[in-house]
Fold this protein.
Amino acid sequence: MKNRKIGQKISFFFAVSCYLMAIATAGFSVYWWNNYGSESPIFASALASVVFFISCGVVLHFVANANLMDLKIKLDDDTKTAD
């Protein structure tokens, strides 16, 4: 497992949450389609929510797995000049 920073851990948590919400919304869409048909605007909104949650999950997953470099400036003892 990679050594992730706190922001990446939070991003991974929300990515998994988005995937779970996409599954739940897809289940609701199937339920609505079986009982009320596909002509309802609620069905279209539920499908749009599935696409939204999946795309958010993918983006957050990429952010969580990114190899972020350390941007802190490190001064070595050799680079310091004695005046």
Remarks:
- The chain has a mean pLDDT of 88.
- Residues 15 and 67 are 17 Å apart (CA to CA).
- The chain has one domain: 6-64.
- Residues 6-64 form one domain.
